[in-house]
Predict the structure.
Amino acid sequence: MDLPKVTIQIVTYNSLKYLPFTLESIFNQTYRDFQVLVIDNNSQDETVDFIKKNYSEVTVFQNKKNLGFSKANNQGIMLLHSPYVLFCNPDIVLEKNWLEMIIQKAELEEYKDVGTFGGKLLKLKPSNGEIDQTSKTDLIDSCGLKINKNRKITEIGAGLNSSEFHQDREIFGYSGALVLYKRKLLDDCLIKTKANPRGEYFDEDFFFYKEDVDLAWRARIFGWKSMFIGEAIAYHIRYMSGSENNSLSETIKNRKKQSSLAKYYSYRNHLLLLIKNEFPRNFIRDFWHIKWFEIKKAGYVIIFEFKNIGVWLEIITMLPKMLAKRKEIFKKAKINHLDMARWIEK
């Protein structure tokens, strides 16, 4: 029997609040050649019971503990083998033609070297825990990822009006909130080391936070492209600001909205991103921008998040493992520092 063309993959952890709206929008899609896989990280809020009761067509894989976003997604990628994998957060609502618009572009011969596709993600603002047409806004949540000179990763267009972004265009990459990956790209980006001979797509040492940026960066290094499709519209509930603003004040504002766990992994994993993926020549070129930004962040951590200074020791202990992964990544590099530099905002 032929596999569905698309596996829609959702990682859940106590996600019952908005998951019903996500699943409803998925099963209302005009494009129907898909299967849905939920990987649950030991939810305690009846997420799994709800799915089994209301969506018998959804395959559920249950973990006995919270393995994090990275490992759970890797489990899903290895379980089902459709030509395309759509990673979807459990707080997303898709317009009915979202998947149809994306697949139409993904199947084009001219996009054979494009490995990831995403659309215009707009902000969704529930009222009293409910989502309806009034919850949908015209404000952009994300039209993809961009890298700044100081290596801060920001969401393209965040906070701007939807009308400003409608043309299809190539971008650096997409966050994992809602993005379609070609299976060929995922298989190409599988990294195996002595410490993990099974291999990993999303870096499992990241646990959660910025593992999607890491995979997008690696895909770029391997020569894959990413496309923004302006006609494909969906909505996302974001609990932190996604502003394009590159200032430290905006960074601090966002961090105050994060949980203590998210703050820790956000700070740690950004440093791991650079260790694994940065081209030395680009690092030297932008050294002062990077250094000044990291000094300001370190000062903030010392003053306001002192317990997170443990990140620095953990980075040292993780360095051999990260360097081993970096070695494997750059063995397969298909672009040079100049190719990558064009994606770093001037």
